[in-house]
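Reader question, answered in our methods column.
A reader sent in the components of a multi-part assembly and asked whether the whole thing could be modeled at once rather than chain by chain. We filled in our standard form and ran it. Here is what they sent:
COMPLEX SIZE: two components
ENTRIES:
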Amino acid sequence: MFYREAGQFKATYAADQQLFPIRQDRWAIATILAIAIFIVPLIANDYWFSAILIPLLVFSVAAIGLNILTGYAGQLSLGSAAFMAVGAVAAYNFQLRVPGMPILGSFILGGLSAAAVGVAFGLPSLRIKGFYLAVATLAAQFFIPWLLVKVGWFSNYSASGVITAQAVVIAGYAFDTPIKKYLLVLVIAAVMALLAKNMVRSRIGRAWMAVRDMDVAAEVIGIHMLQTKLLAFAVSSFYCGVAGALYAFAYLGTVQPEDFNLDLSFRILFMIIVGGVGSILGSFLGAAFITLLPIFLDLLLTKLAHGFNLNLQGGAISMAQLVVFGALIIFFLIVEPHGLARLWQIGKEKLRLWPFPY
Amino acid sequence: MRGWKQTMLVLLAAAGATLSCVPVIAQEAGTQFIGILGYRVGPYGANGAAFFSGFLDYLSLVNERDGGINGVKLSWEECETEYNNTKGVECYERVKTMSPTGPTAIHPMSTGITYSLIDKAPVDKIPLITLGYGRTDATDGRVFPWVFPLLSNYWDSATAIVKFIGDKEGGAEKLKGKKIVLLYHDSAYGKEPHPVLEAESKNLGFELKMIPVPHPGNEQQSQWLQIRQYQPDWVILWGWGVMNATALKTAQKVGFPRDKMVGNWWAGSEIDTEAAEGAANGYYAASLNLAGKDFPVVQDIQKYVIGKGGNKTNPKLVGTVLWNRGVVAGMVTVEAVRKAQERFGKKPLTGEQVRWGIENLALDQNRLNKLGFGTMVPPIKVSCTDHSGSGYVRFQQWDGQQWKSASDWMSGDRALIRKMVEESAAKYAAEKGIKPACMGG
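And here is the structure of the entire assembly that came back:
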């Protein structure tokens, strides 16, 4: 009913090719962005900014990165956390060692450093595929944190190997409170998501999808394997690198190479699997599911325990939360193996046909 | 499938409704609220459960026996961090907002989480108490006014271990030419002792080899193979959680004598030695606090808290190293609040006021006896320049059943530590643009 595009005529090629062809979608995106920029800062508190919204956006950017590589180009990777670590440490070092370096420049250079490393670890993708490639990218996951710890230069010879990120100042304006950091991360995440959305429907994106669907056929129609696959690794690692820099500068404020462990790589992989492989929206939904649901369950179970006046043994709630979280992941994957983004897509189709769905 | 989705929607709606209907856990007005970043699940859950049970039991004791601190009752909320830095930050933000006076003081119980909170604490005006862990150079309170590595820090521990080994060898000069391995947890925690051990090795002339064990450390074949090839005289075990028991068991397998192994205080609890099943006999470990149930405070907790079924503490934990350490952590928090009450009045106090209380905390032997702690911990005197307040370490040896004291309270090379703390803190201050100064009140 509300979601019918009847009467929306597209008179120009530009109108036909725009990013969100349905008017309602454009309105929805604009409304969500407006709420995120203008309304949320008015109602949310520090807890929401520092513990929920900032990590959600940071992990969404990382999930978009992995989705580009795995969801669009079909190259399985377990190195996302390592590329995040490269981005974080590189941004720190550019900020530290290049006098007068603008912080956004450091973020971009951090992303580019991650892209370079990503290309290096993407080289095996020219020869191997699928699970074997995943194992090859695992090398990055073990090698990079080890290297960052081993070579003291990366952490500026900090005794414990922990880096403290510098203050975020753009053109003399300090992003020092959670609310300012949130807005910064929001703008960066929104721009990067829009770029990704554009990229995946460009020539490059179509080449990636062709490679994903059948690489021999893609080669036959003239897609250059080397360029396409390595570009996917570069772009994906760039996104992960920027996410890592944001993680260091806007979220935790410190970088401990062991934070970027295999566990985090798996979490990012779960984000895109739960959210939807090959979907930008899915990256956000998956990041929300994996980062927010445990917090939500924890709050819910704690409140239930308080509400019923249960004197539980310490840790019972935490364990119950893990059990419920695991069960929910399985439940969602059974109900919708294509991820939450697919649920939305089905809902959208139903809405367009409402009230006579078939 | 359709039915499934409807069920799911109903479930989600129900969950949402519960979340919004159940009132926010209101902290009883007029109580001193303590926010707790605990962990009882995950790879370090067993250690966390022991520590935080002791912590809660002491807080309950103060409420049940004394009716609070000078009549101000305590209330608290525990948030599960799983020893994970991002969860730790989430919990910190959560407990921060739970009471108008803030969470009193935070015990992160994780060196990693401590590092993530060091920059947040001054902004939020919440003191961090890092009892025997965390950032060592925070001992210099002029640079880190909000961080208190109370009792002793890692460098105290490391140098005391070296001194202890020296004593066993018959004098510090006998260490010359000896080979010592540091087997460490590959994290910020495991790397803290590196600079001071390197300095000690230069000063005393022993060879030092540092071997990392990746988290969580339940597989150490290759590390112990390296150790066997190197044939060291002593191994310093700097582990946490499952890594400790694995190290002891693997040492037994490769035939390295356990009485040539010294752990730091996070590698010396019953949880580690009991899990090692006999492989731990003869193993030494440093300790911040004594184990045992003979202390009056432990008796009181048995009587007032555990006997009444409060906190559901596992009775097996009572009197263990980590449980007693939790009790000590509770005690220093409570005593800091008591100290701050002397100045700011008998009402719930803010983090800023409690910070003053910690910085002026002084517990001499008389006071400790009165509190029922006796010799469980050394006397503590905190000041702006010395945020640790003691620096003493004691060694104990596992006899197969329990920890037996193997030394008196001793301190390591305090002059060396002080010099390195000041250098390291000054470097941090320069990097962060902090002007070192005492904060006062």
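What stands out: The longest helix of chain B spans residues 321-344. The CA atoms of residues 40 and 85 of chain B lie 15 Å apart.
Send us your own complexes using the same form.
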